UniProtKB/TrEMBL annotation:
GO terms for cellular component: extracellular region. It comes from Pelecanoides urinatrix (Common diving petrel). Homotetramer. This is Avidin. Belongs to the avidin/streptavidin family. It is found in: Secreted. SUPFAM superfamilies: Avidin/streptavidin. Forms a strong non-covalent specific complex with biotin.
Length: 113
């Protein structure tokens, strides 16, 4: 079974640390990213999420949000699934949607990536 809690690294060398997943599936942690809208050094930001409890033999799905704390007026929502290969390696696959604040309704078209 795949365990979300722990330290994860992505292809961009960003790190995500998830604390223990509660019985109801809720979890929290922090995301340390090297990829920022403003450039510069790595920054840690809080994350909160929930894991869908998998059925027997299933791989859990999950979702979480990251509030890019102190360096960007943006929030990203991630949704994904956890898998374990035959060698026991755990892998998270995710899709993300980033929303950046804009100054007016007319600029809304460019706020989501």
């Amino acid at each position: 079974q795949c365990q979300l809690s722990g330290l994860w690294r992505n292809e961009q060398d960003s790190l995500m640390e998830i604390s223990a997943v509660r019985d109801n599936g809720d979890f929290q942690g922090k995301y340390l990213t090297w990829v920022t809208l403003t450039g510069g050094c790595a920054r840690a930001s809080p994350l909160m999420g929930a894991q869908q409890q998998p059925g027997e033999g299933g791989w859990p799905t999950f979702a979480f949000t990251v509030r890019w704390d102190k360096f960007s007026n943006a929030t990203t929502a991630f949704a994904g699934q956890c898998f374990v290969d035959t060698a026991g390696k755990e892998t998270l696959t995710t899709m993300w949607l980033l929303r950046e604040a804009v100054g007016s309704l007319e600029e809304d078209w460019k706020a989501t990536r």
